[in-house]
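Protein modeling request. Please complete all fields; requests missing the sequence field cannot be processed.
Requester role: graduate student
Desired output: 3D structure, C-alpha cell encoding
Chains: 1
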Amino acid sequence: MNRNYFKIILFCFSCFLTQTLFAQNFTNSWINYSQKYYKIKVWRDSIYRITPQALTNAGIDLSTIHPKNFQIFAKGREVPIYVYGENDNDGIFNNNDFIEFYGERNTGWADSLVYDVPENILNPNVSLFSDTLK
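Delivered output (134 residues):
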C-alpha cells in the first residue's frame, strides 16, 4: 500500500512538472512599453492602405518615425506589412508613401478560451471582450 501511495504522488508531481514546463506563455512580452502604439480598426478581412495623411490626422508626428520602423500587431503577433517608399533612403514617410497590410476583422476567437464547450459561444463572429454591438 505504501508503494502505491508513492507511485501516485510521483505521478501527480510528474504531471504538475510537465504542465509547468510546457505551459503556454500568456504574457504581453511583445509590447515595448517605451514606445507608443496606435489602434487601427478594420471591419472586414481585406487589404488595407494607410496613407501619411491618415496618420497625420490621427495625431502622429511622422517626422520622428523612420518608415522602416513601422510595425503592425494583431492578436499578439506581428502582421507582415508593405511600406511603399521605405527604400528611398531618405528616412521620411513622404506624401506619396503608404503602408499596406492584410487585416482580419475581430471575431470571437478569444471567447473560445473561456468556454469549455465551443457550442456554448453566443456568437462566434463577435467578441464579448472587445466588440460593441450597435
